[in-house]
Design brief:
446 residues
Length: 446
């Protein structure tokens, strides 16, 4: 699939004001991306974020090349690449250490770059870019209630102090525990245990003995590295970045424990070591040097029937609409695509037809997001079922053209008219998924 840059009308410094007022709730990747693209498209945008200040939390996060082409279009490539892991291959092993496959990680791929780094480093670059564009970001504003006024063409949000804000459209990018979700779909959607949990950690290599142990120094002496060990219904990914100076690992395993309250909590290193006690000794060597880890229960939501409120003026994007499993490596990327696509459809609809813009956006995004989610599940299942001695390209982390070569901006412009016309002529109805759980393009992904 070729790039479609010639089809994308990029705004100049004199972009025309659309008059559309947008309030984005949540300053994560989807919210920030939506605000940036709304600004670029001429909308008036403000972000409400519940935390009072950004904190250096989390660990490795990957932005696929499908998101990377968007971020490069904003002029952020050099800053993002400077903090990203630059490993040239992924070495995939069975649980005993036998080599299953060496997957090359060429960059650029489909004309764009992926960015894999600490979540906070990537997020800070997008956050500062939003501020440099003059986007107002109000910290310490926790949205507690939503409404819409169809007669006056407005939607609104109330924060914890009782103060209210209204706009032509409210974009709820408030995460997997979204307050807006119940308002949009009309009922409380409770997540279900996926049957899996993930231990995850990030730490400095030299400080914790990685560089001096012959079982672990491969992560530092050869520069940035990515290794995976798979099988026995478990997979662990270990990576180094900043030239081998920092270590990150994730271990996904079966976990059917009931979740009550927080979904993540401090993990016990001894519990992780017990999982890998008969694995390639390199796994235990890395984990035993880890100062602390997080135990994160992986919950799933059934696909929501809609991401758009009854009057079309409150919209769920990113994890608020469609949480992803880590094995998809697409959660943040799809949230960015959501935000960008919505900015385009609002521009094409215009201020007098905001609900048409949001409903067209939903149809553009709905099946693609589900396909990306399912691809993550098939990858996990394939990896967890590997046997010693298995090998081949079929075990590579999938990077199919339909997912990675996608240009969300060009696609939004190309798809808008046909979908919008159908909604105008036939009326709006909630989107439906393909009749099959796995669509053909997911099935055909190697």
């Amino acid at each position: 699939m070729a790039e479609h840059r010639d089809q994308v009308p990029l705004p100049s410094n004199g972009v025309r004001d659309t008059g559309i007022d947008v309030i984005v709730v949540g300053a994560g990747f989807g919210g920030i991306a939506c605000a940036i693209e709304c600004k670029r498209k001429g909308h008036r945008v403000m972000i409400l974020e519940k935390v009072h200040e950004l904190k250096h939390l989390g660990d490795m996060l990957g932005l696929g090349v499908n998101a990377g082409r968007i971020l490069a279009r904003w002029g952020l490539h050099e800053k993002l690449w400077a903090v990203s892991c630059s490993a040239s291959e992924l070495q995939i092993h069975d649980y005993l250490g036998g080599l299953v496959q060496v997957q090359k990680l060429p960059m650029p791929l489909f004309g764009a770059f992926a960015y894999n780094s600490h979540r906070a480093l990537l997020h800070e670059i997008l956050f500062e870019h939003a501020k440099s564009l003059g986007i107002e970001i109000r910290m310490g504003h926790h949205a507690v209630e939503y409404w819409e006024d169809e007669a006056n063409g407005k939607a609104g949000v109330k924060i914890q102090t009782g103060e209210t804000f209204d706009a032509d459209v409210i974009v709820a990018a408030d995460g997997v525990k979204s307050t807006a979700r119940e308002f949009v779909i009309g009922y409380r959607d409770n997540p279900k245990p996926s049957g899996y949990a993930i231990y995850r950690a990030w730490f400095e290599a030299e400080e914790h003995g990685i560089t001096t142990d012959p079982l672990t120094d491969f992560l530092s002496i050869h520069g940035d590295q990515v290794h995976a060990w798979i099988g026995k219904d478990v997979h662990i990914i270990v990576s180094s970045s900043r030239g081998g100076k920092t270590i990150c690992w994730f271990l996904t395993h079966k976990d059917n424990a009931a979740v009550d309250g927080d979904w993540s909590s401090p993990g016990k290193i001894e519990d992780v070591l017990d999982i890998v006690k008969d694995w390639d000794p390199r796994c235990a060597a890395v984990i035993s040097k880890t100062p602390s880890c997080i135990d994160w229960k992986l919950l799933v939501h059934d696909p929501l029937p809609t991401w758009v409120s009854k009057s079309g003026r409150v919209v769920l994007i990113g994890d608020a609409a469609h949480p992803f499993l880590p094995s998809s490596v697409q959660g943040a990327s799809q949230a960015i695509e959501d935000g960008l696509t919505l900015a385009v459809t609002l521009k094409l609809a215009g201020k007098n037809d905001v609900p048409l813009g949001t409903r067209t956006w939903e149809f553009i995004r709905y099946q693609r997001v589900r396909d990306a989610q399912l691809l993550g599940e098939t990858t996990r299942n394939k990896w967890h079922g590997v046997n010693t001695g298995d090998s081949g390209k079929s075990f590579e982390l999938p990077m199919p053209e339909w997912l990675m070569a996608f240009d969300a901006e060009a696609h939004a412009y190309a798809a808008y008219d046909g979908i919008a016309q159908s909604i105008v002529e036939d009326g709006y109805h909630q989107p439906t998924l393909s009749g099959e759980e796995l669509t053909e393009q997911v099935k055909e992904t190697p």
